[in-house]
Amino acid sequence: MAAGPVTYERTRADGRTFELRRTAMSAGGFVLTVTDTTERIRTEASLREAQRLRAIGQLTAGIAHDFNNLLAVLVGSLELVQAKLEESDPALQHLQRAMWACERGASLTQQLVAFGRKQALAPQPVNLLNVLADMVSLLRRTLGDHIELELVETTGLWPAMVDDEQLEIAVMNLALNARDAIPEGGKLTLEIANTILDEDYARRYAEVEPGEYVMLAVSDTGTGMPPEVLARVFEPFFTTKEVGKGADLGLSMVFGFAKQSGGHVAIYSEPGYGTTVRLYLPRALGVILPARQPDQSPAILPHGSATVLVVEDNAAVREVATNILRDLGYRVRLAS
Ligand SMILES: Nc1ncnc2c1ncn2[C@@H]1O[C@H](COP(=O)(O)OP(=O)(O)OP(=O)(O)O)[C@@H](O)[C@H]1O
Ligand SMILES: [Mg+2]
After folding, report:
1. Is the shortest distance between the CB of 251 and ligand 1 below 6 Å?
2. What is this structure's pTM?
3. 193: number of CA atoms within 13 Å, CB side?
4. Atom 28 of ligand 1: nearest residue by CA position
5. Which end of the chain is less crowded, N or C, counting CB atoms within 10 A of the terminal residue's CB?
6. What are the residue ranges of CATH 3.30.565.10 in the chain?
7. How far apart are CA 71 and CA 52, in angstroms?
């Protein structure tokens, strides 16, 4: 009886994988079929990873959403209590600590929501160079004197379709990671370029649409990462740093933000040589960039006597919003 075909997997020293299929012929001898499976295996791995992160994202965003509503109730209630306390009241100090904890909780849930791609984004055509130029002095202060900062200027850049405020947070997260990876001095380079991701690239990476992107590369000359760290960096709460140092959500936020913006993020890293994070943001088509907006001053809550319709599906949040508005003198109508 002729045996069925036998299949072997082989991985070459350069990392390419091959499938060898040996089929015995009835007349004797055999046929050996060799298939290069490198691309297929890479694509499958990319798809699995995308599905895994999407599943974690759905879970975290769901929890974060409910948690946010609870925090809104807490903050609103604390504000109401605070308004009723004298400035000399010793309870004020406890109240402020509780408010601080709520703010911290809110910023955590914000990052989780970002990872789960459920943020309220306000994308608009943005010149990335303007965003970065505005951040340079803040970045210099954050990085410290031992890290040189270079912003590579490029001309003819396309505008990107992106929420600029969230982009600033993403860049800050990347800069903080670079700072942590450069303990003894080094360099951080920010570079922007027009980029086309072609069909071939899109096939290799799950969830990438071929097209025109504005690419922002953040490169550091730091410690770099071994492959086992690199494989997990986008996971929320994955860290190699001391417990309690940060929220460990920096790259998770960057990842979710890039995905939700219709973009892509890729990381290249070599232990001992440094890391480059490439953020691809979709090109804004058919637009002329608007003039830069002047800074807006902080809002002061206006008192008034008008009637306000509060529309909110969460009962507790609705109640707090109502109380705050009533305290400001407004008449409130409710709708769930
Ligand atoms: N530029 C980098 N160089 C070397 N390792 C990095 C770099 N960026 C990220 N990492 C690795 O990826 C891990 C996850 O990064 P992430 O920003 O998500 O969280 P974190 O930096 O540990 O915590 P947090 O951002 O909340 O302070 C880091 O702990 C670190 O091991
Ligand atoms: Mg970080």
Report:
1. yes
2. 0.80
3. 9
4. 239
5. N
6. 124-282
7. 28
